[in-house]
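Researcher: Please translate sequence to structure tokens.
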Amino acid sequence: MEIQSIKQRLGIITVNPEMNRAIEVACQVAATDLSVLVTGESGVGKEFFPKIIHQLSPRKHGQYIAINCGAIPEGTIDSELFGHEKGSFTDAKDARKGYFEVADGGTIFLDEVAELPLSTQVRLLRVLETGEFIKVGSSKTQKTNVRVVAATNVDIPTAISRGTFREDLYYRLNTISIHVPALRQRKEDIELLFRKFASDMSEKYRMPVLQLTPDGKDILINYSWKGNVRQLKNVTEQISIVETNRELSAEILKKYLPQVDSNVPMLLGKQGIEGLTERDILYGVLFDMKRDITDLKKVISEIVKGNIPHDFSHDEHTKLASAMYGESAQFIPQTSAQIYEQSAHDAETEDIGFQDVHDVDDILSLEKRELELIKKALQKHHGKRRAAAEELGISERTLYRKIKDYDLE
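Model: Translation complete:
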């Protein structure tokens, strides 16, 4: 079956190549009985993949049961999965079938599988390897023929190293691995998903559909979306109900997006950056770097010329070490002679030499350099501003402003 048909049937919205590849793998593996492990961050849509696998498999007429392993208390998880006999524990007034017995001939989806207790992991491994399980409170072995698809947002190798997940179970589950990319890695999908969620809310509550202004679209696409698709849906629904203005600008969206990201490093202290443009901040950072490099060259030059005593004070040594090595100062040489030796070695290694400290003043102005970079990026991408902005590592809105500032229209 074509991928597009599968996406339409399950309501999957994506044009992202990596996401389409994940769907393709799910379709290919569906006809087999191999175990599948779906990985990815919380909220990316991992739950769609076991449905694809089940619906395209020979088991499609059998039971499909989805279980959130993290939502079942540790004391009852074995009973839920494998069943129990009457009187096997307090309140076990009747015998009960577990999910593996009920889903015989079908598919079980174990979401958040890394949350399973180690004792339950042992039972699960036995089911996967032999198809056998024993009910709680029973000594009788039962057989089941179940396809298992598991999912987790946990880094399983790390969990194994911590002793919270069995390595043998990991390899048994991970026969086929499907990774679902985070929403921030699927930027081309963000606006499509927003439109879908906004349209659904408009239809459900009979209200005008939300629209995005260009700057609003820019904010939406470049936001980090730590909660992924789930967070995007939540925000869209919230705005649909609360906001009376149906045209969403960047200013409106910022009220609903906590800690809106910036592409500019925050190196200006705690007093904030109100009133400063991205350009002002970037220049400030670069000029600070230029000043630090100049100071460092002066210090090294003085050492080379022998103008710094061999036994200068500890405070002077610390200051010099910090200038040269930053946060790694605790690992630096302990005497001026050692600092000179290390400086000479670093210079030789990096091929920077000990040029005159005033050479740095001959560097092209930052503004001219920025203009050259923008021109090259636009030429490389044939005037396509979005691609050029990505190349430069800035937002499309920022690039628009810079094009206007430099009269590049």
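Researcher: Any highlights?
Model: The beta strands are 36-39, 64-68, 107-111, 132-134, 141-143, 147-152, 176-179, 211-212, 247-248.
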